[in-house]
Amino acid sequence: MASYEIVDDGESIIKLLTDEWNFFDGSGLKPASAKELLADVLDDGELVRKSFAPIQYSAGGNLRRWEDLRDEMMHRNRWFLDDPMDMDRIAELLGQLIASSKSFDQSTWYRARLMSSDDPYPLSEMNAPPRHLAGHGRANPAGIPYLYLGSTPTTAVAELRPHTGEKACIAEFELPELKFADLRNPRKLTSPLVGDESEIIRLRADLPLLERLADELTRPVHPRGAPYEYIPTQYLCEFIKSCGFDGVVYRSSVSSDNGINLALFNPEAFEALRVSQVLVERVSVQIGK
């Protein structure tokens, strides 16, 4: 509530909390019930009936700086940047997005490889590629292998952009307790109930930046543009690694089952447990203008 002010012509506090912080999202509560619940929590039935507007944070601009930085990294400078981000602030924001292996409803994760012949890959070849074979990926630069896992076999295969009729090998991995930066839904993970008034206002101003970083990891990239379009996410993931995270969690942009992906920064710590072979029976295509 500290990041909002009472105005004559504003929005209900329930709508603002839902839109900006995903409060009550998925709860099934109707607005009237949510208002009644909030009134009980605040012990103030009159306050929740008033109209509110967000208090603006004048020192923002982190989203704009990220847009400038990603353009510079892709098209002007790669290593010595003219106007770097406030990475201390990014580290603070990542502290709001911590997830552990226990945060997920599963312990088994999957890696897929398209088969180049009729012979399936042995289990020993289903781990992350060796350094000399590691190409550039969404999270890793070429030569620095990460282990990419999907939450389901379908997600793992879909990330390969297969053709109908192709065969793939799917390996299963069991994960120990790990620390992830969870970029699936930043608004749902951040909380306006932590910190003083100025910090809550500042956090709300940076939510669009967190959503933009999450979108970077999910945005489809054409293979021809991958060598340079992956650079911003590689930069982001290397910074996340430097902050002590074991990996990053992000939404899959191609999975038909709402799957999620993990990129693990230390692939040598994991070994495939089982491998199976599957056939790609159908590939779904959705077009738009």
From TrEMBL:
SMART domains: RES. This is RES domain-containing protein. It comes from the Bacteria. InterPro entries: RES_dom. It comes from Cryobacterium lyxosi. It holds the Pfam family RES. Residues 122-276 form the RES domain.
